[in-house]
Write a structure and sequence with these properties.
alpha/beta; Acetyl esterase/lipase; hydrolase; AB_hydrolase_fold; 10 helices; Rossmann fold; GDXG_lipolytic_enzyme
Length: 298
């Protein structure tokens, strides 16, 4: 464990992050205090930005000074479907955009409980449709962490189902793949997970699901069709309660012969590549950069 991660763990403990995720119902109003919907120039240093309303959400486009890759990065932030994006999301995406010389879109999608998963996923779909008017799908890479990781997987599943052009690849970072979080292996990991807890995660998912079941593929891509998906690069973490379901997802994807790469963060927490200070997060970002730069873009 690096000194950087020890500092992050200490900060998480002092700010009561784990305790906040133990509440049922989750206090989504308190969580939203960290939201940044209109980032300033300082936060997006080295890039210019512009925002546009699409459907019920907003897209902010980041333009790095050097933009020559021809690739578009579309990012769905995490936040348990109820809050975000946060400072960490903006910093993460801006780093990727600048290091890969690629335009990047942050999807600030509508949140639960005011909006349900059918409306949220529709917004993500509409953003992708808008993107394909400007970019060939083969030049689009989808990224998402936590709930955002779920959203990019369900988007890809919908595109397959509707026989629509697929993105070049998808990069889910510690995604939610089963909203029910009922896997028995989760209980023991809950004891060591420094961020998430079962009660809060399930509570947020219940706020989001509306009239659907928590096992509906729209919110739990584990139960959706997994064949025919674009190449997947999934980041997991050993100290994350969402990992047991991800392991099942990974095995099911492998059975379909879909290309999948697993990047395991040993001793790492939820969304480790986007956390500040940690050298492990820097290594995670460099891995993502290498995936983007190594993508075969026609």
């Amino acid at each position: 464990m690096s000194l950087g991660y020890r500092l992050v763990k200490l900060f998480l403990k002092l700010t009561g992050e784990k305790k906040s995720w133990s509440k049922d119902p989750i206090d989504y109003i308190a969580k939203r205090k960290k939201d940044i919907h209109a980032p300033g120039k300082l936060l997006l240093s080295g890039s210019s930005s512009e925002s546009k309303q699409i459907d019920r959400g907003k897209v902010t486009k980041l333009h790095p000074k050097k933009k020559n890759s021809g690739v578009l990065l579309i990012y769905c932030h995490g936040g348990a479907f109820v809050y975000g994006p946060t400072r960490e999301n903006w910093v993460f995406l801006n780093k990727l955009s600048k290091q890969t010389h690629s335009e990047a879109w942050m999807i600030d999608y509508p949140k639960a409980p005011e909006h349900t998963i059918d409306l949220i996923t529709e917004n993500v779909y509409q953003v992708y449709q808008e993107a394909t008017k400007l970019y060939d799908p083969s030049k689009i890479i989808l990224l998402g962490d936590s709930a955002g990781g779920s959203l990019i997987i369900t988007l890809a599943q919908r595109l397959v189902k509707e026989s629509k052009p697929l993105p070049n690849r998808i990069i889910p970072i510690t995604p939610v793949v089963d909203a029910g979080v009922t896997n028995p292996d989760i209980v023991k990991i809950d004891l060591i997970d420094p961020i998430l807890s079962i009660n809060g995660v399930r509570s947020a998912n219940e706020m989001c699901v509306g009239h659907l079941s928590l096992e509906d593929p729209l919110i739990s891509p584990l139960y959706g069709e997994l064949s025919g998906l674009p190449p997947i690069h999934v980041f997991s973490a050993t100290d994350d309660i969402l990992t047991p379901d991800q392991l099942i997802f990974i095995e099911k994807v492998k059975e379909t012969n879909t290309q999948i790469e697993v990047i395991e963060g040993k001793g790492m927490p939820h969304v480790w590549p986007i956390l500040p200070v940690m050298p492990e997060a820097k290594q995670g970002i460099q891995k993502i950069v290498s995936i983007i730069q190594g993508a075969h873009v026609e």
